[in-house]
Write the structure tokens for this entry.
Amino acid sequence: MHSDESTLPDDVEGLLVTAGYQTDGSLDVLIRDHLVDSIPRRRVLALRAANRRAITVDDDWHRALGDDDVAVRREALTLIAAAVIDDDSLYRLLLAALDDDDALVVDGAVFALGEHLYQPAVEKLIVVATQHEDARCRESAIATLGALGDDRARPAILAALEDKPAIRRRAIVALSNFEGPDIEAALERAKDDRDWQVRAAVDQLGRGDD
């Protein structure tokens, strides 16, 4: 009989004890067993533990990124952002996650792609930055496009200066990686933004001056 997910502990040792195992020398094997557990919370904790112990393999990431449970997909994206990726198919899964129905999955995919500075993601990130209905996703996409510094993103970042305040602030920071008369003109206009934090962000850049 499985335990209720809400009662599962947050550490892998507790997870294994809950499942009826002892944390002995076969811990890695037990962790890997729980990567395919029927309870999503156990899969999340097992993935976290496997990543911490550096025993994840590409198949584990593939399975987790395609998991039916949104919590597992979110966790996988959080963890893979700092992992070493050698398999191009994993990058394709990160790109596919940009189309996920869950906004936090999209946000996690944007962050992971940014952490890996994955340039082929630029076009899809532009779509997220300009069309996604969730402001968190648009903001993350603008931040990542700024980090990538690809000139194709210039129009999207400039357009973000007309979005919500948090996104406008993020766009100011993103524009620090771009140059040109259009950028300087946009920063000059942003000095009069109605949001004081946007104005402060321009001041901190030391650009947009007459």
About this structure: The CA atoms of residues 172 and 201 lie 6 Å apart. The radius of gyration is 21 Å. The chain is about 60% helix and 0% strand. The chain has a mean pLDDT of 89.
